[in-house]
Structure formats: structure tokens, C-alpha cells
Amino acid sequence: MREGEPRVHRLWIEQSTICFGAPERVVVRIPIAELRLIAESTNESGPASDDWFLILATSSEHWTEISMYTAGIHEFFAEVARILGAPSLETSLAGSTSFASNILWPPDLTGRPAFLFESFPRWQQWLTLGIRGNRQRYSLDALDALARSRVRLTEFAP
């Protein structure tokens, strides 16, 4: 990369690990075997900034958000669906302009909300400095997915 060129983050799979960043500097690594939930989420930040995110969750305490506008996202969806043995991972929130979420995997929970968005109580709203905010927490369906056993990749080998 030459000086002055923008850094472009990519999303890809390498050796059964989800990688995000640049090839010379990977900032996120998530072993696919540790995935428990894949979802999408939107907020009210668009169009000024990213407002649509891929959610990769490995536990009830940890999830990673990656912009759906990241380079390589379409190839990632095809590859991770193949590895997980899912028919496909279909998103549906591209045009959403509010707080929303949707489980993409595991397949038995597809289409159900991944998160609950709760407004701050009036007495706490001053903390957001006038920006509309909320608390985001896992839905019961997402917690169900997160409580399940880890994926055995050997079951889905091509």
C-alpha cells in the first residue's frame, strides 16, 4: 500500500478462521468452530456513517460487529454458509433506518431478532448528550443459540 491510499479492511476465511482487517494486519480473528450466532443489526447512524452490521457471536459476553459494507462480505457469506452446512445466509435489513436485528444462523432461528433495544430511562438520557441511544442486549432466541454446543466443523467438511 502506498502512502496516502485509504486502508481497506476486508473479511475473509483462512484455515477455518474468520479474519477481518488487512492481510498485513489482521485485527479480528474468530475460529469458525467457536461461532454460536451470526446475525445482522442496524442502527440510526446512516447515511452519515455505517448503520448495517454483521454480528459474529462466540458467547453471551462477546460479539464482534463488522460493517456490512466491508470488502469481501459477499464471498464471506457464501464460504461460511458452505462451511456451516447452511443453505445460505440471507440478510433482510439493508434498507432499515432504525434499530433492528435479525438472526442469520443457526438456521432454526433465522429471521428472529438477535437483540432487544431498550431506551435509556429519562433520568439517564443526559448521558447520551442528546443523541438518541439505547441499551442493546441479546434476545432470548439469541441466548438460546449462544447456549448451544460449539460447531463441529468436521461434520460439515465438503
Give the arrangement of secondary structure elements.
Layout: E1 10-14, E2 17-22, E3 25-31, E4 37-42, E5 52-59, E6 62-67, H1 73-84, E7 100-105, E8 115-119, E9 134-138, H2 140-147
Antiparallel strand pairs: 1-2, 2-3, 4-5, 4-7, 5-6, 8-9
Question: What can you tell me about this protein's structure?
Answer:
This protein has one domain (36-156). With 158 residues, it is mainly beta. The protein starts with 9 loop residues before the first strand and ends in an 11-residue tail after the last helix. Strand 5 (52-59) and strand 6 form a beta hairpin. The longest helix is centred in the middle third of the chain and has 12 residues, at 73-84. The protein is globular. The protein has a four-stranded antiparallel beta sheet, with helices on one face. It is built from two helices and nine strands; from the N terminus they run E-E-E-E-E-E-H-E-E-E-H.
Question: What string, H for helix and E for strand, traces the elements in order?
Answer: EEEEEEHEEEH
Give me the number of helical elements.
2
Largest sheet: 4 strands, antiparallel
Gyration radius, rounded:
17 Å
Q: Can you give the mean pLDDT? A: 82
> Rough shape?
globular
Number of strands: 9
Please state roughly what percent of the residues sit in beta strands, choosing from under 5%, 5-15%, 15-25%, 25-35%, 35-45% or over 45%. 25-35%
The total tally of domains equals 1
Strand order of the largest sheet: 6-5-4-7
* Helix fraction bin: 10-25%
The computed structural class is mainly beta
Provide the low-confidence segments as ranges: 1-5, 154-158
Q: Determine the N-to-C terminus distance.
A: 35 Å
